[in-house]
Amino acid sequence: MNLLPVDDAIAAILRRVPEPVAETVPLAEAAGRVLLAPLVARHDQPPFNASAMDGYAMRAVDVTAGHRLRVVGISQAGAGFAGAVGADEAVRIFTGAPVPDGADTVIMQEEAVVDGDFVSFTAPPRLGHSIRPLGNDFARGQTLVEAGMLIAPMQLAVAAAANAATLTVARRPRIALLATGDELVLPGAELGPDQIVASNSFGLRPLLAPYAADVIDHGIARDDRDALRGKLEAVFAGAPDVVVTTGGASVGDHDIVQDILLELGVTLDFWRINMRPGKPLMFGTRGKTLIFGLPGNPVSAMVTALVFIRPALRAWLGYTGATTWRLPLAAATPPNTARRHFMRAQLVHGTNGPALLPIAQTDSGHTSSLAHADMLIVQPEHDPGQKAGAIVEALAIDAF
Ligand SMILES: Nc1nc2c(c(=O)[nH]1)N[C@H]1C(S)=C(S)[C@@H](COP(=O)(O)OP(=O)(O)OC[C@H]3O[C@@H](n4cnc5c(N)ncnc54)[C@H](O)[C@@H]3O)O[C@H]1N2
Ligand code: MOO
């Protein structure tokens, strides 16, 4: 059997992903989006020389031990001192307030001795001290967040400080999910003989949601040609950008997903990958819609979504962040076969920092082994196995 190498499959998928499309969103709705146009500062920050302390502003040359300066005014945040500070003068100043003309230094109030309208200092002058110079944070025209970055809370705070009311982000795809299988029932049902709870869509939906405008779960299609065709027609009628099916991807008599997809005009790019779990993955297109036919086994469905759909969605959004981690093993790995192995692993925090604890279970139908899986170790084809402490590549399941 001809199995496509994982990297060739990813490359083939990426060739079908359209260029990112820009849309403008209000700042308050930009969290979790990928920036498509860089965030450029439109003003200098701070917009004036600002005090970093509550204290006094003066000319450093006027400060000598025991020498008294006359306090001639107040500068507070939002209401600066209108005049200028002259020789032997000081201005009472507060954190964030504009440093008045003439002053070149701020001394905090803990180092000041006040006597009526006069102030002297217990600390020596340090020219420019406790002043945040105009433009010190950022300057007009400076790129603050690059295109391709995720707008997480820190980036959103920067965008707000830069006075951006809107951001240019990538349009997100609309995703449709469909589970297939006669044996499947929804969680919560009374299990009849030979029935299995349909779990895949419940894991896939939150996995794909961060990249999507919406993820619509079309439920379960029976392994019957007419029923499956009807369901898939309904899925395509919604004009989704990405369709994800699970189950019926293999070679059994009831594995009819590929047949029906072809009948409905899907062009198949490939089927069956040199990996475990996830070998029977299929991928194709119908017009501009990308179609991923994931295997039904629950571990295979999650792993193939992480290995193939996530890179496609990241490319769709123009996301440029790192995709793999390199971490030490907390325990040895066994030798691999000729297929690339995406090994479930737990991220553990030992005295030497984070490490990957391989989960021994390799059955692709073994759902409970997913409970502590935070990472997938990428074990190369024919890898002889690695000792504890060896640095290996891994995919973070929770990362964007
Ligand atoms: N003769 C061969 N048999 C199989 C091969 C093969 O190459 N030759 N490949 C095996 C591999 S690898 C996998 S993976 C599975 C994939 O099969 P399908 O995609 O056709 O999946 P199903 O047969 O429909 O289901 C497999 C398994 O998963 C359960 N399932 C299905 N959907 C769900 C769901 N939504 N939630 C939870 N569990 C689900 C289903 O009940 C089965 O137990 O084929 C091997 N066979
Ligand atoms: O490769 Mo299948 O997806 O493991 O059992």
Set down the secondary structure blueprint:
Blueprint: H1 6-16, E1 22-26, E2 39-40, E3 50-51, E4 55-58, E5 69-75, E6 89-93, E7 105-108, E8 112-115, E9 118-121, E10 131-132, E11 143-145, H2 153-161, E12 166-170, E13 174-180, E14 184-185, E15 196-197, H3 200-208, E16 214-221, H4 225-237, E17 242-246, H5 257-263, E18 267-271, E19 275-276, E20 282-286, E21 289-294, H6 298-317, E22 325-328, E23 340-350, E24 353-358, E25 375-379, E26 391-396
Parallel strand pairs: 5-6, 13-16, 13-17, 14-15, 17-21, 19-23
Antiparallel strand pairs: 1-12, 2-11, 3-10, 4-6, 4-7, 5-9, 8-9, 18-20, 20-21, 22-26, 23-24, 23-25, 25-26
Helix pairs in contact: 1-6, 3-6
Bound molecules: ligand LQZAQKY5 and molybdate ion.
Explain what you see:
With 400 residues, the protein is of the alpha+beta class. It folds into four domains: 6-20 and 171-317, MoaB/Mog-like domain (Molybdenum Cofactor Biosythetic Enzyme, Chain A); 22-44 and 147-170, Alpha-Beta Complex (Molybdopterin biosynthesis moea protein, domain 2); 50-132, Molybdopterin biosynthesis moea protein, domain 3 (Molybdopterin biosynthesis moeA protein, domain 3, Beta Complex); 325-396, MoeA, C-terminal, domain IV (Beta-clip), CATH 2.40.340. The chain is 17% helix and 30% strand. It has a six-stranded mixed beta sheet, with no helix packed on it. Strands 16-13-17-21-20-18 form a six-stranded mixed beta sheet, sandwiched between helices. It is elongated, with a radius of gyration of 31 Å. The model has no long low-confidence stretch (mean pLDDT 97). Bound molecules: ligand LQZAQKY5 and molybdate ion.
